[in-house]
Amino acid sequence: MVVPKNHPRYESLLLREKVKDCLKEGIISEVGIAAHGRGEAFDYFLGERTTEQAETAIKASARLLCRAENPVISVNGNIACLVPEEIVKISKILPLKIEINLFYRTVERETKIKKRLEKFGGKNILGVGENANECIPGLDSLRGKVSREGIFTSDVIIVPLEDGDRALALKNMGKKIIAIDLNPLSRTSLCADITIVDNVVRAMPRLIEEIKKLKNKDIEEEFIFDNAENIKKSIEIMKNNLIRLQEKIDER
Ligand code: ATP
């Protein structure tokens, strides 16, 4: 379908087209479509823009990633569909390991995602088939499978669109978690060390810019970032946007 450029939901419809194509290609699962829809609803409340709070969280994430020893990005079908180029870019700048980590795991889908990332220049992609040779304590063997050289031994993990159980189990392993999640109320958002309440398609390019600025600079160890406070402010923005929308109805 050709999306007319003057459509008020142009960007959002373009993403839907992308998601639809990735479903056909077997990159995204059917359940991934539902997750995308939930994200769209929260993005609507957020005003479909990167807020000041998201900017603060992005800057804090860039600092944490630049100081990390073994950072990893956990890749599922949705983000492999939406931001494959950015995943690869960030992996090369830092460096950061790329690990495929699916909720509904099949070797077939893992391989398709790996190929998609390789098409964008991704190298040494972990988590496919036998490479996922360890298990996150507290999760069943299928959902808990991770790569020893990747997530299992990582110190900092970026988890865009992660399931709450898994995020919590990773946190319990002592990892620092950076979540990118449009839902500030999700269990993943609430348990992360840093939650970027933003759409991955906006947050990832911004994160790359911040990392580029910080790279090869001395970063002082201490930085103050209060995740709970930041999340509360994001919710406040959504609340105020809803009030504004409500007032518009009154004006009609
Ligand atoms: P949790 O298990 O953490 O409590 P959940 O059940 O909502 O939360 P999932 O459905 O496993 O989590 O993951 C999808 C999450 O990703 C949702 O919170 C959704 O808002 C978010 N999401 C979907 N699309 C995007 C996107 N493009 N950018 C950022 N977040 C997104």
Automatic annotation (TrEMBL):
Chemical reaction(s) catalysed: (R)-4-phosphopantoate + beta-alanine + ATP = (R)-4'-phosphopantothenate + AMP + diphosphate + H(+)
UniProt KW keywords: ATP-binding, Coenzyme A biosynthesis, Coiled coil, Ligase, Nucleotide-binding
Coiled-coil parts of chain: 197-248
Protein name, UniProt field: 4-phosphopantoate--beta-alanine ligase
Source organism of this protein record: Candidatus Methanofastidiosum methylothiophilum
GO biological processes: coenzyme A biosynthetic process
Enzyme Commission number(s): 6.3.2.36
InterPro entries documented for this protein: PPS/PS, PPS/PS_sf
Subunit and interaction comment: Homodimer.
Pathway: Cofactor biosynthesis; coenzyme A biosynthesis
GO MF terms held by the record: acid-amino acid ligase activity; ATP binding
Purpose: Catalyzes the condensation of (R)-4-phosphopantoate and beta-alanine to 4'-phosphopantothenate in the CoA biosynthesis pathway.
